[in-house]
Amino acid sequence: MGEGRMDIAETLEKRKVQLALKRAMDVVISGGALLVLWPVLLVIAAAIVIDDPGPVFYRQVRVGKNGKRFRIFKFRTMIVDADKKGLQITVGRDSRITRVGAFLRKTKLDELAQLLNVFGGQMSFVGPRPEVPKYVDMYTPYQRQVLLVRPGITDYASIAYRNENEMLAGADDPEKMYIQTIMPAKLELNMKYLHEISPVADIKLIFGTIFAILKK
Fold this sequence. Notes:
By secondary structure, this protein is mostly helical.
């Protein structure tokens, strides 16, 4: 495990320039996107409030780079206080999901709010999806290597497990399946990304994500 960590650390050290370019790309693109898309963001916000009165954003504590906790922005897709009325994972046609929320989740438009996290430096466009502290506490030392970089809006796991809700819906114990099967598989895909990390790899993954959303 220790050697694996050293390999990742060395890879990141050797790619300092590429990582700096990656961050610059994140700032420029997220800033430009916020300026261009603000009318769309306002329409989404209005639709959320009209459908189910309450906060526009859902802000949940996640674990970011170097284990630092932050609050992730998402357009709210569930009823108010949904996390107090069920699991921290979403399963199938979860009754807590609102009508507008179902559309936002299907199209991934709820993730647009994370442009704020990217611009603010807590996240990147591409990187391991940030988990809640409860699940990060279960990581092995090997798996915790994903915390060496900024988490992202999308990654290999987001594409491979884009139908995760449906997969969990068919399990007798959804949370157990997530912890024992899905989470470890996602983390292995995250390790694959850490070995490839670069602006070029990011561009490929972004286009791969767009294709997966359109295909769905």
